[in-house]
Design brief:
This protein is α+β, with helices and mostly antiparallel strands. The protein is built from four helices and nine strands; from the N terminus they run E-E-H-E-E-E-E-H-E-E-H-E-H. The strands form three sheets. A four-stranded antiparallel sheet has the order 1-2-3-4. The chain has a three-stranded mixed sheet with strand order 7-8-9, with helices on both faces. A two-stranded antiparallel ribbon has the order 5-6. The radius of gyration is 18 Å and the shape is globular.
């Protein structure tokens, strides 16, 4: 896994802290917290939006919205965006972790995972998959079996939707659109 957090000249400090208490998490490479930054090159704030600026810079730190772990060597490893974490039955599931497993499937070209509302679990992972052009017949059951063999069972998507992924003009997957589609998928 790639790590982030290389110090640069204008970065005063970075830390990974519990979002509620703002206390640093242990540098054990496992405890997840929010990445907070201080730098004179971040930004002054959001244009004409004082409330958003005050929220983003609470307690004098820029709250990135990235969930990360701190390693003992001082490097940070970003695990997911806070809004993309799936909470299923009280367990946190990283959408990035599930996507990494999906990308290892030999017939998968693209994948994105979002939370789908669930009456029993609160949320469950919903996978959106684009198959490679030369892919044979791949079913939702095949994708779920692949995930079950490579992930803890509670992280396995309960729903798989095939087709192209909605993207911005720069090629970034529009997860907000997928969240809406997940609500409607059966």
């Amino acid at each position: 896994m790639a790590r982030q957090g290389v110090q640069y000249l204008t970065l005063e400090r970075q830390r990974v802290a519990d979002p509620e208490t703002l206390r640093d998490v242990p540098a054990d490479g496992e405890t997840i917290g929010e990445l907070l930054l201080r730098s004179n090159t971040l930004m002054k704030g959001y244009l004409k939006n004082r409330a958003a600026t005050d929220e983003a810079f609470a307690d004098g730190w820029f709250h990135t919205g990235d969930l990360a772990v701190m390693h003992a060597d001082g490097y940070v490893e970003i695990k997911d965006r806070s809004k993309d974490i799936i909470i299923s039955g009280g367990e946190n599931i990283s959408s990035i972790e599930v996507e990494e497993v999906l990308y290892r499937h030999p017939q998968v070209m693209e994948a994105a995972v979002v939370a789908k509302p669930d009456d029993k679990w609160g949320e469950t992972p919903c996978a959106f998959v684009t198959l490679k052009p030369d892919a044979g017949a791949v079913s939702a059951a095949d994708i779920i079996a692949w995930c079950r063999a490579n992930l803890a069972h509670f992280k396995v998507p309960k729903t798989v939707v095939f087709g192209p992924l909605p993207k911005t003009s720069t090629g970034k997957v529009q997860k907000y659109a997928l969240r809406e589609r997940a609500k409607l998928s059966g």
